Design the sequence.
């Protein structure tokens, strides 16, 4: 780990009616990182010090997660609100645009933000999250429906929260350890950090509410931007052994993205930037420098 790691700081910003926590390090152009489920800013711990050499890196706690505000209304977690959070963070930090990096749900937000505000995204980097149109198509296939069973379970009230709380948040641990190819990528300290974040009052319901808004986000054009041809230069990094999202969801993405680079990482799970951080950082570097 970089010697720069100890210099990151915790900050807060109020935007779009919520106060969001973030960790930041470095100076220069803005690199904004958006985590997935069931994570928080910590999932970028291997990338923050690396890219702080050249950027002001901001790793956000999305609304509902960890130390960010956790609105109670289900509607607070629809895609349009999430997009406005990102816009407010960029402008609130004094920037006109950023390098936008997202994984899982953070990647879904990043895709939609790039469509809504392409002028505010210099380059887009998404990890193990397909283009939203490809994911919507995938939900009509048996293979992806089987992989996405939990999306339907999360539509239920109360039960998903109880499942995650059971046996000292064992489901949080399982989400990482059982899905990972390289189990050693997650230490006991890492898992405890994720459990502690999920155990904060109101966090579990807030986190699951993203999924309770998933169908409007992907199937109702009134609740998200129009997915035409995206002109923002885009890098997709994909761990090939993703148990939740099939690799086939990446095929045909070039139909929606004018300037696309895809990097597949074999023997790697959904948790790509944590399981293969050196390779992910290398691919990001190459893309940002124009070498790939």
Sequence:
């Amino acid at each position: 780990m970089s010697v720069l790691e100890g210099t990151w700081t915790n900050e807060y910003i109020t935007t779009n009616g919520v106060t969001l926590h973030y960790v930041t390090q470095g100076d220069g152009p803005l690199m904004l990182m958006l985590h997935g489920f069931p994570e928080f800013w910590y999932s970028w711990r291997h990338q923050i010090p690396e890219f702080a050499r050249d950027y002001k890196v901001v790793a956000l706690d999305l609304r509902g997660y960890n130390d960010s505000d956790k609105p109670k209304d289900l509607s607070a977690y629809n895609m349009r609100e999430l997009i406005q959070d990102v816009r407010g963070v960029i402008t609130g930090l004094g920037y006109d645009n950023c390098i936008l990096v997202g994984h899982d749900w953070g990647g879904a937000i990043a895709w939609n933000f790039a469509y809504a505000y392409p002028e505010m995204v210099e380059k887009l980097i998404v990890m193990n999250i397909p283009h939203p149109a490809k994911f919507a198509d995938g939900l009509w296939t048996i293979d992806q429906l089987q992989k996405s069973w939990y999306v339907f379970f999360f539509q239920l009230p109360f039960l998903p929260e109880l499942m995650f709380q059971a046996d000292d948040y064992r489901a949080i641990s399982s989400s990482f350890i059982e899905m990972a190819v390289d189990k050693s990528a997650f230490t006991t300290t890492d898992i405890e950090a994720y459990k502690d974040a999920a155990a904060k009052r109101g966090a579990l319901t807030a986190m699951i509410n993203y999924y309770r808004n998933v169908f409007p986000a992907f199937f109702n054009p009134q609740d998200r931007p129009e997915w035409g041809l995206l002109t923002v230069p885009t890098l997709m990094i994909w761990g090939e052994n993703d148990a939740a999202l099939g690799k086939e969801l990446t095929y045909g993405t070039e139909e929606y993205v004018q300037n696309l680079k895809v990097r597949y990482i074999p023997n790697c799970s959904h948790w790509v930037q944590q399981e293969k951080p050196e390779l992910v950082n290398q691919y990001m570097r190459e893309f940002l420098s124009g070498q790939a």
